[in-house]
Amino acid sequence: MVDEQSVATTNKGRFFSWRDFILGFQHLLAMYSGDVLVPLLIGNYLHFSTLQMTYLVSIDIFMCGIATLLQLKQTALTGIGLPVVLGCAVQAVTPLESIGSKLGITYMYGAIIAAGIFVFLIAGVFSKLKKLFPPVVTGSLITIIGFTLVPVGFQDLGGGDPTAHSFGDPKNLIVGFITIAIILCLNAWAKGFLRSIAILLGILISSFIAGAMGLVSLNPVREAAWLHAPQLFFFGIPHFNGSAMITMILVSLTTMIESTGVFFALADVTGRELSTKDIERGYRAEGIAAVLGGLFNTFPYSTFSENVGVLRMSGVKTRRPVYYAAFMLLVLGLLPKVGALATIIPNPVLGGAMIVMFGIVGVQGIQILHKVDFTDNGNILVASVSVGLGLGVTMYPHIFQFLPTEAQIILGNGVVVGSLAAVLLNLLFNGYGKEKPAKN
How far is CA 399 from CA 130, 154, 250, 330, 410, in A? Predict the structure, then answer.
């Protein structure tokens, strides 16, 4: 694995590095589809015009770059300083659609701003809960994050929409499994840099194959505008409603819990020990990103777990490639026609890559659990019950359909349910801030 100091030494005196640029492009492709999906879902649900949708997608991409830079650069107030990419919080889609359709778009953005301020203010308190996350909890949480996302990859592998008549079309499956095969073959036989960009090459090569099979459409590129700049209050001055703000605050709590797991996963990959201050700065950066999202009429942003798998596979733990990814997001956000090129990658191609990446994240959690003393029944119950609940809720989130909407927001997220279960069970069996001796 490549460390930050050695890369800094290698790149000393160089302003631009093609190697880091390509690695950054790999990070961008890994998160691009998931990020663009959120504005498309919300915009279509709220019947946005073509002009509104163009703004929403392009400025959302631009704000992803801003949010990522806030996390990458450590200051006295913000930034966790890990190679982390931020994107739209997908768990906010349904609540935002509900607020936007019932109260109006401006109330939706008021709720986002309020939630961002809440995250910023509560960051210090939330970060002090670090003792609630010993290896048995973080290992379980990271395992849940990885394995609960694998079904998302399978959904894309089949074509994206399980209700569509073409879902599972042989062409989709062929392209998806070709993507997996290319990534695996490059990791088995390629050396050095080629191995580190296995995901990127898998996506690009499979996209060309998919194009030859008629699965690629250039319409999004033709329809996109050439230039679009960020505009404050594009959809109007934000308005505030109590129930809408509470709803988005609950959503922000779920994203903070999920981000905590990703923070620890990245710390494990990079070999860095996270302090309470590090985590506090990480939460604050996400809070500011959400406020900016509300002001520029986009969305709340959270740490993307997709890129943990990219980091793990590439073996590069420096922040330099992610800086390139962030600046590329800024450029693509200002040039929608260029940015639209990444949207033509077929779902089956992305699905194949996601299955590999999310599986790696899940196994990373298992590696952390390997440090736990499982001769103790308490630790076995913490891990098994929390992982079981997380996976179960992911498969059947509607099991809580008769509960109040606010409760469904929290309990309908498998990562949140599994995380809460792991924390509470660890407190029950091990106590606060105590761990059973780890295995050597």
Answer: 30, 22, 19, 40, 13
pTM of model > 0.90? no
The structure tokens listed for 378 are 């308490």
Cβ-contact 337, 225 below 8 angstroms:
yes
> What is the rounded CA–CA span in Å between residue 29 and residue 438?
38
- pLDDT digits over 204-241, tens only? 899 899 988 888 877 777 777 787 778 888 888 899 98
Q: How far apart are CA 114 and CA 109, in angstroms?
A: 9
The alpha carbon of 186 is separated from its chain's Cα centroid by a whole number of angstroms, namely: 25
- DSSP class of residue 335 equals -
Coil, helix or strand at residue 87 = strand
Percent of the chain that is helix, strand, coil (3-state, to 5)? 75, 0, 25
Please tell me whether residue 189 adopts helix, strand or coil conformation.
helix
Spatial distance between the Cα atoms of 407 and 228, rounded to a whole number of angstroms: 39
Q: What is the pLDDT of residues 137-152, one digit of tens each?
A: 888 888 887 888 788 7
pLDDT tens per residue, range 232-283: 888 888 999 887 888 788 778 877 877 887 888 888 888 888 888 999 999 9
